[in-house]
Amino acid sequence: MPSVLPRARPDLSRRDAGLRELMDDPGCDLAALERTYARFDLVNSLVAGWSATYRHRIRPLAATGRPLSLLDVGCGGGDVARALARWAQRDGIDLRITGIDPDARAHRWASARTARWAVRHPRAAPPAFRRVTSRELVTAGETFDVVVSNHLLHHLDPGPVRELVADSERLAGRLVVHNDLVRSPAAYRLYAVGVLPLAAGSFLRTDGLRSLRRAYLPHELRELAGPAWAVGPGSFGHQQLVQDRSLRVHTRPPR
């Protein structure tokens, strides 16, 4: 019986920036891409830790009678945005979510999937999806209370990470949480086996393993983001690049 583990464990001591994920190829198999988007709902609910992030970071920002705006950057198929909308509706929070992704395929999928989702969740405010970049929103002068992303940072080389950090600082009034993978042998080997039941006909396994090889280590993210940002642990195999302005104590400067 052939092994389900990778034939050779890659060197994870350094980031493999030369790898590209299959789903990032504009000419990739569209059916496989859409299967990948469809299965992100389950995969991210199992591994990405957004339920805890919502409870501990986003929900405490809500105030009675005041809407809370949230931007999901690089939202892909929109699964995180839909989950946040469902939890907010359950908790009676007026959370107004915008998901952005410049990829036309992601925008089309997220919009169609969410239209069907809204029929099943009539009391939840459905996320709105836009095919724009964070830089375009900055240029337009738009702002949000909260800015988040999920599994976006590892797609970006250092220059674009710095640009995203700068955009996030200008777009977010209260909180930024960029949730991403941590490059590690344990996560690599566990994901290689654990994703198999869900991977058939999709890019989940190949791209997930490539993602882990492209992921940053915590100290690498700290160096890219600068001293105004914190890097802390997320769920297993994850880290979070955070700027939480709601924790800052504002005092009146002396005259």
How is this structure best described in words?
- GO terms for molecular function: methyltransferase activity.
- This protein has 255 residues and is an alpha/beta fold.
- The protein has a single domain, classed as Rossmann fold (3-Layer(aba) Sandwich).
- Helix content is 43%, strand content 17%.
- The chain has 10 helices and 7 strands.
- It has helices at residues 30-47, 50-58, 79-90, 104-120, 134-139, 158-171, 185-194, 196-199, 204-214, 218-225; strands at 68-73, 95-100, 128-130, 144-150, 172-181, 230-233, 238-244.
- A 7-stranded mixed β-sheet has the order 3-2-1-4-5-7-6, sandwiched between helices.
- It is globular and about 55 Å long.
What are its keywords?
255 residues; alpha/beta; Rossmann fold; seven-stranded mixed β-sheet; 10 helices; 7 strands; 43% helix; 17% strand; SAM-dependent_MTases_sf; transferase; methyltransferase activity; methyltransferase; S-adenosyl-L-methionine
